[in-house]
Amino acid sequence: MKSMIGRRAMGNYAYASARVKTRKSFLYPKETYLKLLQMDLPEISRFIEESRYKKEIDELANKYSGIDLLEYALNLNMAREMNEVLDFCQGEMKILLGAYLMKWDVWNIKSILRGKNYGASEDEIKETFVPAGELRMSTLVDLIHKGSIPDVIEGLNGTRFYKPLSSSLEEFNRTHTLSRLENNLDKAYYAYLLSIKLAGTSADELMMTFVRREVDITNLRTLFRLKRQGLEHEKIMDYIVPGGKLKADEMRKLAQAPSFDEFVNLVKDTPYWPDLAEAVENYRATGSLNAIEVALTRADISYADKISHAYPLSILPILGYTVRKQVEVNNIRTIARGKEVNLSNEVIRNQLVI
């Protein structure tokens, strides 16, 4: 059944847009990231401590230090920011934004599953949490305490994620790989998001176009990875998330390409090729898919930025801000982690979305 948004739930667009515009003005510009690249890790930490992340740094400083303190503070700040934005939205906006922010439930569940599968400590798993979706921090902590992945899945009984995870539990028990569980989480998330029936305004259509492009980008990441591995096309199709701008027959054509090079040639016929051309050349030179991952993320962010200005009194500026806030946190984390392992500034910069 589709979720319905009625006329009486339209939302407080003018108020929410004004508040988001103010918050967006505080996001770091490109020049700040270039400045951070010139700093060493202690200097970066001091810079962040003196910024609007100060509250979270001070709050967590008694328990954590160094890069761990920075990670926790960034995630806590982003979760609070997302929840605050959601709180001042009403009606349609609140429903839409709440549905979109469920991506953090998917993120957090994947973090728990991965942590359990690879033997990470409870603190290491908790460090990755961004409790900005429906699942509260207390629920996530309870899930960390579960003894096994099947126990974690059972702990999600009563949520929209239980059925897609439990349906793949037998395969996990047989293979001990997480790919099917994670893929089913993505499918459940996008199926719910795309099920919301909107009023049909131009802004609504752009919102859903953004979501469908995100589905395409998720699928392209999967295709690049699995085609390089040489997986059979029918198995690849099992991992494709429905609902993107690229239709099922287009996805099947990409999956059926007999070689990676022929797959790339077919990608040239998609609207995403201009964003990928340079990254594919980088892949040919290095053998690493990292540049392609970054290029796809940049394409996603670029479209969010573009549509956020189209209809000022709509969900779009709010959506654009939440996406940009995530970019800021990810960029800071990328710089700090890169400095920690002594990557060159050039390598780090190539991973930034600026």
Care to describe what's here?
The chain has helices at 13-24, 30-37, 41-49, 54-60, 66-88, 91-100, 103-118, 122-126, 137-144, 149-155, 162-166, 169-175, 179-195, 202-229, 233-238, 248-255, 260-267, 273-286, 290-308, 315-340, 345-350. By secondary structure, the chain is mostly helical. The protein has a domain at 202-313: V-type ATP synthase subunit C fold. The mean pLDDT is 93. It is found in: Cell membrane. It is a peripheral membrane protein. One of its GO terms (cellular component) is proton-transporting V-type ATPase, V0 domain.
CATH topology of the domain at 202-313: V-type ATP synthase subunit C fold
Run of helices and strands: HHHHHHHHHHHHHHHHHHHHH
Strand content: under 5%
| Oligomer class | single chain
Q: What's the helical proportion of residues?
A: over 70%
Count of runs of 4 or more consecutive helical residues:
21
Per the principal axes of the C-alpha atoms, what is the gross shape?
globular
CATH class of the domain at 202-313: Mainly Alpha
Report the CATH architecture of the domain at 202-313: Up-down Bundle
Give a quick rundown of the structure:
Keywords: ATP synthesis, Cell membrane, Hydrogen ion transport, Hydrolase, Ion transport, Membrane, Transport. With 354 residues, the protein is mainly alpha-helical.
Task: Give the tags.
V-type ATP synthase subunit C fold; 21 helices; 354 residues; mainly alpha
Task: Please give the structural blueprint.
Layout: H1 13-24, H2 30-37, H3 41-49, H4 54-60, H5 66-88, H6 91-100, H7 103-118, H8 122-126, H9 137-144, H10 149-155, H11 162-166, H12 169-175, H13 179-195, H14 202-229, H15 233-238, H16 248-255, H17 260-267, H18 273-286, H19 290-308, H20 315-340, H21 345-350
Helix pairs in contact: 1-20, 4-5, 5-20, 14-19, 18-19, 19-20
Protein name: A-type ATP synthase subunit C
Subcellular location: Cell membrane
InterPro entries: ATPase_csu/dsu_sf, ATPase_V0-cplx_csu, ATPase_V0-cplx_csu/dsu, V-ATPase_V0D/AC39_subunit, V-type_ATPase_csu/dsu, V-type_ATPase_csu/dsu_dom_3
